Amino acid sequence: MADAAVPDLSEILADSPTNWGRWGPDDEVGSLNYLTAAQVLAGAAQIRRGAVFTLQRLIGDPHGDPVWPGRSPATREMTLDESHWDDGKGPAFPGGMHCADDKLTASLQGSTQYDALGHVWYDGQIWNGFDSRTTIGGLSRASVAPIAERGVVGRAVLLDIARHRGKAYLEPYETFDHEDLIACAEYQGTEIQPRDIVVIRTNHLQLFFENAVEFYSDFCESGLVYSRELVSWFQEMEIPNLVTDTIANEVTVDPNNGAALVLHNALMRNLGVAFTEICDLEKLAADCADDGVYTFFYVAAPLKINEATGSPVNPVAIK
Ligand code: UVW
Questions:
Q1: What is the pLDDT of residues 16-30, one digit of tens each?
Q2: Residue nearest atom 7 in ligand 1 by C-alpha distance
Q3: How far is the CA of 68 from the centre of ligand 1 (A)?
């Protein structure tokens, strides 16, 4: 239910930049278009040691799966295992093979994931001006499938905001902006280059793993906060992809206007920036702090799921 005291996103974002039409009227991958062959080569040039880091969180983590309030963590169920043969009900394969099968019931936004560009909207239009009615019954425009089809490969930079602030993790409601990203890069001795995939560590989800009940009792994740200047910076820097270790990549409720997920709309809907959420950046961040190198080759391919609003993914960082 909308709160009458909170301005509509159309008001908040009235003068916020957009990239609609930049890649033609049928474009469904937005700022990922910046990831040209030159960016793939610039990314590959970051490989120095052959050190590989996978950034997905474990689905079915015994310590819990952090999800947006209202979504359920994935459940996995065995559909075939040795008990079927114990009970005399296992299939009789010629040669006597036994096997195990299982199935996953999962929210496509409920783990480390890519959002489709059509995942959020306001004013009846999704990314690139497509009608929001194209989301009914499945995203016939700007689903995750076109992102999965092209893949996401390029040079990436880790901005360790928690470390820059001298903290183990950022607190609920704690915000930062593009100036903080620039300051963090300077502190790290790193340059954020145009078309870099921006990877931000807050380690905010440590709070979920310490006490999930408390984490959800007053839910407001730390993260980037909207300003027109921040959106212009993303546009001018031609940032293709925002990757973070929080559930929603931004402060949940904007402290300046009370609206939820403003950057989902300003960056994803309006600029076409791809969002990758709920990453585990701890091992990568420790390595970057250790060798002082915060840039790397980033490769991610969400699953090709027809008309889906998002997809699980296991991004890979290579240094
Ligand atoms: C919501 O859609 C609420 O969040 P996310 O993009 O983090 O899945």
A1: 999 999 999 999 999
A2: 248
A3: 7
